[in-house]
Amino acid sequence: MLFREILETRIPSKQEERILMHLDLDAFFAAVEIRNNPELKGKKLIVGNKNARLTGRGVVLTCSYEARVYGVRSGMSMLEALKRCPDAEISREAGDEYKPTSTRIMDFLKEFRTPISITSIDEAYLDITDMVNSYGEAFYFASYIQIKIREMEKITCSIGIGPTLKIAKIGSDYQKPEGITVVVPDKIRDFLFDQKLTNIPGIGKVTGAKLEKKGYTVCGDLIDRYESELIDLLGEYGSYLWKIFHGQSTNVIKKRGTRKSISHERTFHGKPLEFDKYNKYLLTLFNKTHDELTRKKMMVRTLTLKVRYNGFDTITKAFSLPASTIDRGIIFDKLQEMSNNYFNDPRGIRLLGVRFSNLVKQGENENLNDFFN
Ligand code: TTP
Ligand code: MG
After folding, report:
1. Cα-flanking dihedrals φ and ψ of residue 71, to 5°?
2. Among 241, 232, 355, which Cα is nearest to 289's?
3. What backbone torsions phi and psi does residue 10 show, to the nearest 5 degrees?
4. Which of 22, 24, 26, 28 maximizes ligand 1 atoms within 8 Å of its Cβ, making it the mutation to test the pocket?
5. Residue range 286-304: mean pLDDT, rounded
6. Closest by alpha carbon to 82, among 46, 132, 109?
7. How far is the CA of 27 from the centre of ligand 1 (A)?
8. CA 255, 358, 162 angle in degrees (round to 5)?
9. Ligand 1 pocket member 24 (CB < 6 A)
10. Which of 289, 360, 287 is nearest to 325 (CA)?
11. 3-state DSSP helix/strand/coil percent for the chain, to nearest 5?
C-alpha cells in the first residue's frame, strides 16, 4: 500500500483493536556465519554439515538468499542441496554464537516493556498498540528496531505490522530480507489477494497441494467466500482461513509465564531480629518462592527484598543478576547479601518479603554459569 495511506491510518479506536508486530531475523544462522567470516558475504552459503560433500549426510539448517535462488531450502538434505547448488560454500563454524546472538536481540526487544512472545530462536511478536499513535509511527518504530539490531549485531531482520498476529507474521515474510510491511486493517484483502495460500502459516505443503487440486492456489481464490462456504469446502481450515482473511484471528499475545513475578511475605511483631532468626525466616520465604519458580519451570533475574519496620517505613531493595537463573546458591547468597544493614535495624521488623521478577521460561535464556565461572 502507499506510504501516505499508512501514515494516515490512525490507531485503532476500539479498545479491542491492537497493533501487532512480528519480527523475523533474515537467514539467521547464515547471517551469523557471515558475520563470523565476512568472506562468505554475497556467496551461495549453506549452513550445515561441512563434510556433506564427502559423506552425503546432514540437512540444511538454513542458507543465504543467494543459495535460495537455486532452490536450496531449510530442512532439505545436504545431498539434494548440493545437487541443486554444487558450488555452494558450506559453513557451520559459528554455531556457539546463534543462541547468544538471539538472546541479546530478544533482550533488546524486551526492554520496550510491551507484551512480547518469543516464538523461536529468531522470531518474536510484540504488541505495540501502546507505543505508537498511528500505523505510520509503527513503520518508523520498525525501522528504528531494524537499525538498532543491525548496529548491535550486524544482523538484519524483517518486520510485519498488522491488526492480528497472523497478518503481522505474513507481513514479516513478505519483503525479506530487511523488509518492513505494514498492513492496515482495511487493506488485508488487498494484501492477501495475490499471495499463495501456502504463505499462510499453518497451510503447509500437504494442505497446499490438496487445495491446489481443488483449484485454489492464491488467497484471492477463496477470500470472498462466506465462512460457511469455506467450512463446507475445507472443514476446519475453512474457518481458520476466513478468520485470517477478515482480520478476525487472534490479536492477543499470550504471555509466557502468565505471572510477571512471584513473591512471598510474612509479618512479625516488630522486634529486632537476631541474624540466625532473620536468616531462618529469609530461608523459608526464599524456599517458598523458589519452589514456585521451579514448579512453573521459570528462571529469575531480578530479586527484590522488602523490609517493613515498626512505623511502616518500608525499604525495597532490588538487584538484577547478570543473567536469569534457578541456582539456589546464587539466589540465596544474593538475598543474604542484600539483607546486610537491614535485618538488625533497631526499629524492629514488621514484615519481610522476597520477590522474584523478570522471569523467563527455563531454556529461553543463557546459562548463568557462563557468567559466574
Ligand atoms: P527461519 O526463520 O525459518 O529461517 P531463516 O532465518 O534462516 O531465513 P528467513 O530469512 O527466511 O527467515 O529459521 C531461523 C533459524 O532456525 C535458521 O537460520 C536456522 C534454524 N532452522 C533450523 O535449524 N532448522 C530448520 O528446519 C529451520 C526451518 C530453521
Ligand atoms: Mg528467520
Report:
1. 90, 10
2. 355
3. -75, 175
4. 28
5. 95
6. 46
7. 6
8. 35
9. yes
10. 360
11. 45, 20, 35
Q: What average pLDDT does this structure show over 171-197?
A: 97
Instruction: Report the SS3 class of residue 127.
Output: strand
Average predicted confidence (pLDDT) for the chain = 90
253 and 20 in contact (C-beta within 8 Å)? yes
pLDDT at 7: 67
Residue 322, number of CB atoms within 10 A of its CB = 11
Report the relative pairing of strands 20-25 and 123-127 from DSSP bridges.
Answer: antiparallel
Whether residue 286 contacts residue 280, with contact meaning beta carbons closer than 8 Å, is answered with no
* CA 100 – CA 359 distance, rounded (Å): 18
Report the SS3 class of residue 316. strand
Residue 153 is among the residues annotated as catalytic for this protein: no
C-alpha grid cell for residue 262?
512471584
pLDDT level of residue 8 (50, 70, 90 thresholds)? low
Residue 8 alpha carbon to ligand 2 centre in Å: 30
Q: State the pairing for strand pair 89-91/45-47.
A: parallel
Q: Identify the residue whose C-alpha is closest to ligand 1 atom 7.
A: 27
What is the reported pTM? 0.71
Cell 540444511 belongs to residue: 60
Q: Are 362 and 299 in contact (CB under 8 A)?
A: yes
Which residues, 6 or more positions from 251, have their beta carbon under 8 angstroms from its beta carbon? 16, 17, 18, 20, 127, 163, 164, 165
- ∠ at Cα 161 (159, 162), nearest 5°? 155
189 has a pLDDT exceeding 90: yes
Q: Where are the alpha helices (DSSP H) in the chain?
A: 3-8, 28-36, 52-55, 65-68, 78-84, 95-110, 135-153, 165-174, 188-193, 205-213, 227-234, 236-245, 275-295, 328-339, 369-372
Active-site position among 123, 229, 265, 364: 123
